[in-house]
Amino acid sequence: MAKKSMIEREKKRAKLVKQYATKRAALKEIANDESKSMEERFKARLKLAELPRNSSATRLHNRCQLTGRPKAYYRKLKVSRIMLRELASNGQIPGMVKSSW
């Protein structure tokens, strides 16, 4: 089980990313537009730098929804490998059975 503080920090980051997504996208659009003047693009970059760091989507980290484990995460199921195995063994994932040969 991950520390509660880390799970909460990740939730806070996700909230910030959602909050600033449109503003960040608009500023990036201006900053990367070659047809705009250099000064206008530079101002957009400065405004982008003033936004909170945690509002960037690259600072998000996927975590298991059941345990909060940050590593060995399956995106499709949103759980870690350990929980995947445990849920499959209990028969809680449809179509997944324990392999034996």
From TrEMBL:
<dbReference type="InterPro" id="IPR018271">
    <property type="entry name" value="Ribosomal_uS14_CS"/>
</dbReference>
<comment type="similarity">
    <text>Belongs to the universal ribosomal protein uS14 family.</text>
</comment>
<dbReference type="GO" id="GO:0019843">
    <property type="term" value="F:rRNA binding"/>
</dbReference>
<dbReference type="GO" id="GO:0005737">
    <property type="term" value="C:cytoplasm"/>
</dbReference>
<dbReference type="InterPro" id="IPR001209">
    <property type="entry name" value="Ribosomal_uS14"/>
</dbReference>
<keyword id="KW-0689">Ribosomal protein</keyword>
<protein>
    <recommendedName>
        <fullName>Small ribosomal subunit protein uS14</fullName>
    </recommendedName>
</protein>
<comment type="function">
    <text>Binds 16S rRNA, required for the assembly of 30S particles and may also be responsible for determining the conformation of the 16S rRNA at the A site.</text>
</comment>
<dbReference type="InterPro" id="IPR023036">
    <property type="entry name" value="Ribosomal_uS14_bac/plastid"/>
</dbReference>
<keyword id="KW-0694">RNA-binding</keyword>
<keyword id="KW-0687">Ribonucleoprotein</keyword>
<dbReference type="GO" id="GO:0006412">
    <property type="term" value="P:translation"/>
</dbReference>
<keyword id="KW-0699">rRNA-binding</keyword>
<dbReference type="GO" id="GO:0003735">
    <property type="term" value="F:structural constituent of ribosome"/>
</dbReference>
<dbReference type="Pfam" id="PF00253">
    <property type="entry name" value="Ribosomal_S14"/>
</dbReference>
<comment type="subunit">
    <text>Part of the 30S ribosomal subunit. Contacts proteins S3 and S10.</text>
</comment>
<dbReference type="GO" id="GO:0015935">
    <property type="term" value="C:small ribosomal subunit"/>
</dbReference>
